[in-house]
Amino acid sequence: MSFSLVPLLLHSSDLPEGARAQLAAALATDEDRRDEHLLSAARLLHRHLDLDCDDARELVGLPPPTDDCGCA
Question: Is the pTM here over 0.70, yes or no?
Fold first, then answer.
């Protein structure tokens, strides 16, 4: 089992509502769709909080992108 910040991030009022909604959806969905929601949350954090893409992905528990479109 790995450590995840997602449950803590869900309750942060500093995060955009859309990102929190995507994180909640990631926790509530099947494992095969979880990364889709986590990536959406990372993209929102990247755009709205001006976080580096790799940092946003790491924050939600995703590995660095293998291509150039990690948060595009």
Answer: yes
